[in-house]
Design a protein that fits this description.
Layout (H helix, E strand, L loop, with lengths): L7 H12 L16 H16 L3 E4 L5 E5 L9 E5 L13 H16 L8 E5 L13 H7 L4 H6 L8 H8 L14 E7 L4 H5 L3 E4 L1 E2 L1 E10 L3 E2 L11 H18 L5 E3 L3 E4 L5 E2 L2 E10 L2 H22 L2 E10 L2 E2 L2 H14 L3 E3 L7 H5 L5 E6 L15 H19 L3
Parallel strand pairs: 3-4, 3-5, 5-17, 6-16
Antiparallel strand pairs: 1-2, 2-4, 6-17, 7-15, 8-13, 8-14, 9-12, 10-13, 11-13
Length: 411
């Protein structure tokens, strides 16, 4: 069993074929959730699953589960998966790799006529990206009860089309109640979407946890005035005060290494005129770290800094938390299975805490879960130039194969 390997060329060919659906001029993929292109992608992957002898179940939020029977089908399945929807300027591998790696595991087991005690399932979850509909990670979120099916169905895109309507239109509004589907263990393979593995020249990232995050909207209210006649000492410049807070966001992240993250990604300046002192600035704050204790400390730091800034400047400043995802530690048994597989296969390895959200976060609420990372070129993802080496993708899939076999038990 230690000599088992997947077919890397077949995995690569499947990735390239799926990437043709929604292919962009720059070599990426635009296949937004619940569009006609998403339907084409879903239809192709489901057809591949059926060709591999798998049965197909679709739930009411459009999550698809492709099942290879085990010797004992009363056991909960060992599941792997990800998503096949993309960003508007997405790449070939984000999400797609996790789904097709699972399919390749099944194809390899079929080739070698290996049976497993537990069933094996490959899932792809609806609207992971959240680029057309919010909330993000919608399918897995409904599945684990993070929010209701009704909330998801009512979500609208920019044209006013709802998730419920679009699921029905493309034929993927299934009958199974989300969550009425057991999981014995869950694994997800993914490109890292960051530069750590490539920088360290490692092939496999063992993912012990996913960072938690807090998102905020911050508003600084000053007074717009003419840029010429108003002396510097008599200004109520909202932008200058806001930039001080923005600098503190970065300083806080540096204060809590190695997983502290602080980002200001969106800024709106009013009135946004060349010769007018800004009277109001609204901006986003994104804080991340690996534990709730550290996130709470970072939260306290930014609130204390804003309170001091308000007292020092006399300007009105508000901060409102608009989103929170708890840090997610993965199950020691699944993390251990990934470590065992990597050691058995002899790949270079390091731990990488994920800074991005994945469906595995929600799956981990219901069953033991773990993740496997492989490098991507320059750490770039959510970009049409996203790229990964075939050898690395093959290695990650080999690790997935052996990790799943440890949990599903080959017979």
């Amino acid at each position: 069993m230690d000599d088992l390997r997947i077919n890397g060329e077949r995995l690569w060919a499947a990735l390239m074929e799926l990437a043709q659906i929604g292919a962009t001029v720059k070599g990426g993929v635009k296949r937004l959730a619940l569009t006609d292109l998403d339907k084409q992608g879903r239809d192709l992957v489901v057809a591949w699953g059926r060709e591999a002898g798998m049965s197909i179940t679709i739930d009411q939020i459009g999550n698809v589960f492709m099942r290879r029977d085990g010797v004992d089908n009363t056991l909960p399945p060992v599941m792997t998966g990800s998503h096949i929807d993309t960003q508007p300027t997405g790449g070939k591998f984000d999400g797609n790799y996790g789904v097709l790696a699972g399919l390749e595991v099944v194809r390899t087991l079929n080739d070698l006529k290996i049976k497993t005690q537990s069933p094996i399932e490959v899932a792809f979850w609806t609207n992971e990206e959240g680029s057309r509909f919010v909330p993000v990670m919608m399918g897995s979120g409904v599945f684990c009860g993070a929010f209701s099916l009704e909330t998801a169905y009512a979500a609208k895109d920019t044209e006013g089309k709802t998730v419920g309507e679009e699921l029905a239109r493309i034929g993927y509004k299934g009958e199974q109640v989300p969550g009425d589907h057991p999981i014995g263990a869950y694994f997800e393979t993914h490109i890292e979407q960051g530069p750590v593995l490539e920088d360290a020249d490692k092939v496999i990232g063992v993912v012990p946890a996913v960072m938690g995050l807090r998102w905020y909207d911050c508003t600084v209210n000053g007074m717009e005035a003419h840029a010429g006649p108003t002396p510097m000492g008599l200004r109520k410049d909202a932008l200058q005060v806001a930039t001080g807070i923005m600098q503190e966001v970065v300083a806080i992240a540096h204060r809590y290494p190695p997983y502290g993250r602080g980002t200001v990604g969106m800024v709106q300046v009013f009135p946004n005129s060349r010769n007018v002192i800004p009277g109001q600035v609204k901006f986003s704050i994104d804080l991340r770290n690996v534990s709730d204790e550290l996130l709470d400390t970072m939260d306290a730091d930014i609130r204390a800094f804003i309170e001091r800034t308000q007292a020092d400047t006399g300007l009105g400043i508000t901060i409102e938390q608009v989103s929170y995802f708890a840090p997610t530690p993965f199950h020691p048994d699944c993390v251990g299975a990934v470590r065992n597989a990597t050691a058995k296969l002899g790949y270079s390895v390091m731990d990488v805490v994920s800074g991005a959200g994945h469906d595995a976060i929600y799956a981990a609420r219901l069953a033991p879960a773990g993740m496997i990372f492989v490098p991507c070129k320059d750490g770039i993802s959510h970009n049409e130039i996203e790229d990964a080496k075939p050898a690395h993708l093959e290695a990650g899939c080999n690790v997935l194969l052996h990790a799943m076999l440890e949990r599903a038990v080959a017979v």
